[in-house]
Amino acid sequence: MSTITDVAKESGVSIATVSTVLNNGTKPVRAETRLRVQNAARRLNYHPNAMAQGLVRRRMNTLGIFFGVVDSPVVVSNPYASAILQGVLTAAADTSNNLTFFTAPWRCAEQSAAAFRDRRADGLLLIAAPTDSDILSGLCSLGLTLVTIATPSEQFGIPSVDVDNELGARIATEHLLSLGHTRIAHLSGDANMASVPVRRDAFVRAMKNAGLVVPENCIQICRYDGSSSYEIARQMLLKPNRPTAIFAGNDAIAMTILDAARDLGISVPRDLSVIGFDDIVTASMTNPALTTLRQPLLEIGERAALLLVSRIQSPEAHQDSIMIPPELVIRESTCTAAHS
Amino acid sequence: MSTITDVAKESGVSIATVSTVLNNGTKPVRAETRLRVQNAARRLNYHPNAMAQGLVRRRMNTLGIFFGVVDSPVVVSNPYASAILQGVLTAAADTSNNLTFFTAPWRCAEQSAAAFRDRRADGLLLIAAPTDSDILSGLCSLGLTLVTIATPSEQFGIPSVDVDNELGARIATEHLLSLGHTRIAHLSGDANMASVPVRRDAFVRAMKNAGLVVPENCIQICRYDGSSSYEIARQMLLKPNRPTAIFAGNDAIAMTILDAARDLGISVPRDLSVIGFDDIVTASMTNPALTTLRQPLLEIGERAALLLVSRIQSPEAHQDSIMIPPELVIRESTCTAAHS
DNA sequence: TTTGATAATCTAAACGTTTAGATTAGTTTT
DNA sequence: AAAACTAATCTAAACGTTTAGATTATCAAA
C-alpha cells in the first residue's frame, strides 16, 4: 500500500509538495508539477493514511456514538434506537463524517470512560444513558465534545436533543380526558430512564388540572422494551374497577396492553382506550392501530448529529439544547369513554 | 489531554518504560517502577491516542461496514439490514472491536474506492452490493481484508456469508406444490440483487421438477423494499386465470401482496396462498400472519464479522464462504389449494 | 548585470505511540 | 576484585502525515 513518500519519489518532488498538491494547499505549485503529482498519486492508487492524518490534524472526520443501555448491540433491533441511528447516519453522511460505534459494554466510569478519550472520534453522541449509571458524569468529566439524546445533561453544560416529554404526556392525558375518561392509568417505562418521571409527573399534573386524582395503583413502572408490562397490565385489567383508559409509557408497552386486553376479552377501544408514545413503525400495524404521540426520531438523530458537528467546529460557542414537540396521531385504539 | 510524555515526566522514567508497563510488555520492569507509572497514568487520566497507536501497530481494533445500497442511511430502517447490523455489532463487541460505518455514498470505483484504503478499519464488511455497480470489484482490487454478506464474491477470492437462496426458494416452492397449488407466481426483488436470479431459477426448476411450467407473465420483477409490488400484484390478481399461490421474493413484497389481495376482496389464504422470504420481525404481525422462510439474520451478521476478524488475524489462511440454510416457518398465509 | 521581489520547492519538526537495540545497574561466579 | 551475566532502563528510529520556515529558482525593474 503506497505512502506519500512513494508518490513523492514517483513524481520526483518532496513529500511536502505532494501534500500541498493533494490538499489544494495555499502555497502556489507549478501547474506541471501539480499534474505530475496527481498522476503519480493516481497511478499508485494512493490514499492518505487516516491515522497519520488524524495524528497531526487532530481530526478524524468521524462521529462517535454510544448507546447507554445495558446491551448495546440490541439497540439496533429496538425501533426507537434504530430510527435515531438512521437520522444520525444521514447527518453524518451529509457532513462527510463517518460514524463509529463504541461497542464495549459500560462497566463503570473508572474502567470504561478512558477508552472514549482515544481521539478516534472527533465528538460523541450519547444516547439514552440510564440515570442510575455513571455514564453521563463519567463521559462529561473527560472533556469530550459531547451531545446527548434523551439524556438531560444541561447540568454538565452539555446540550441535549429530545422530544418534549412533558408536553407529550400532557397531550396524551388531555386527549384521554377530552374523550370523557376519568379512570386513567399510566404504565411507565424503566425507572432509570430520564423521560419516565417527566412523563409520569406531567400525567399526574394534567389529571390534577382536570380536577381528578389518579386512582390507587394506577401508576405502575414497567420496562420500555415491553418485557414486563403484559403481566402488569393483566393484573390491572382484572381489578373490579379497572381503568377505562391507559396512557402507556411508549408504544412497546402499549402493544403489550393491547395483547393483554385481547386475551382478557376486553375490547379496545370500546372497553378500554390505549395511547402510546413514540410512533414506532409497527404502531400502525397493530389491531386496533395504535393512537400515539409521534416523536420525530429521524429528526432528533439528525439534529443531534448536526449539533455535534457544529460543536466540533466551534468548541467555544455555546449551543442550546433542543426540545422537539411530539405530535398526536389518532388511530383506532382510543375513543369516547363508555357511560358507566 | 495528557500524553505518554506527561506520564513519563510525572513518574520520572522514559516513555519507553511507560509503554512497556502500560502494555504489559515482555521486558522486565521493577515492581516499584511499575506502580509509580500506573499511578501517574491514573492520576493524569491517561489513555493512549488511538491514531498514534494505530500508526505504529497497524491495527485499529475496528471493523468497517458498508452497505452497498443506494442510500446507505436508509439501511437502518430496513429490517433486514438492521438485523444483520445487530449481529455484526454483537460479534464486534465480543471481539473487542469498534465498528465504523462508512457513510459516503458510492459514486464509482475510481472516485469512491480509495477512501476505504485509509486504514481506519482493519477490515471491511460489505453488505448487499448491487450486481450492476462496481462496488465489489472496486473494493476487491484494493487489497483490503474483506468479507461480504449477501454478495457472492468467490470470484475475487473473498469469502461471503449468505443464506442458501437456492434451497430456500426450492423449499418455498415445494411447500406450495405440496399444498396442491399448480398455478404459482413469483414476484422477485430488484433485478440487481444477487439473490434474485438464484431464487427465481430455483423456483422455475422446482416447478419443472414437478412437471409444471410457470404460466405466462407469472414471474415479475419488483423491488425488495416493496415499493413497486402492490401494483404489480394487483394487475396479476385481476387477470382471469390468476395464480392460486405466490412466492414473494421477500417479506416486504409478500406484505404488499397481502394488501393488494385484501383490497381486491381476495381472501388469503383461502383464495390465494402467499409465502415470503426473510422472516423479518413484522412477518408475524400481518393479518394473516405470513408463512415465510426464516433467514437467521443475526447469525449471518455475527458469523460474517467473526470471519472477518479471523481473516484480519491470519490474512494468509484461506477461509471458506458460509451458506446458511433457511427454515420454513408456516403461519397463516398458505393453505391447501381450493379445487377448481 | 545586479538587485529585489516573488514563485516554487524543500528541509525539518511535530503529532503520540511502539520497539529494537544500547546502556547502565545489580548480582553472581570465579 | 574482576569477569560475566542478567535485570532494568533508556535512546532513537519508525509509523505517515502536515506545515512553518528556509532555500532556491525565476523574472522584472533598476
Note the topology:
2 copies of one chain form a homodimer.
Chain A: H1 4-11, H2 15-22, H3 31-43, H4 50-57, E1 62-67, H5 79-94, E2 98-101, H6 109-112, E3 123-127, H7 135-140, E4 146-149, E5 160-163, H8 165-178, E6 184-188, H9 195-209, E7 219-221, H10 229-238, E8 245-248, H11 251-263, E9 273-275, E10 292-294, H12 297-313, E11 322-324, E12 327-329
Parallel strand pairs in A: 1-2, 1-3, 3-4, 4-5, 5-11, 6-7, 6-8, 8-9
Antiparallel strand pairs in A: 10-12
The structure holds a DNA duplex (30 and 30 nucleotides).
Structure overview:
The structure is a homodimer of 340-residue chains. In chain A, 49% of the residues are buried. In chain A, β6, α9 and β7 form a beta-alpha-beta unit. Helix content of chain A is 39%, strand content 14%. Chain A has helices at residues 4-11, 15-22, 31-43, 50-57, 79-94, 109-112, 135-140, 165-178, 195-209, 229-238, 251-263, 297-313, and strands at 62-67, 98-101, 123-127, 146-149, 160-163, 184-188, 219-221, 245-248, 273-275, 292-294, 322-324, 327-329. The first copy, chain A, contains 12 helices and 12 strands. In chain A, the strands form 3 sheets. A 6-stranded parallel beta sheet of chain A has the order 2-1-3-4-5-11. Chain A has a 4-stranded parallel beta sheet with strand order 7-6-8-9, with helices on both faces. The first copy, chain A, has 340 residues and is an alpha/beta fold. The model of chain A has no long low-confidence stretch (mean pLDDT 94). Chain A binds a DNA duplex (30 and 30 nucleotides) through α2 and α4.
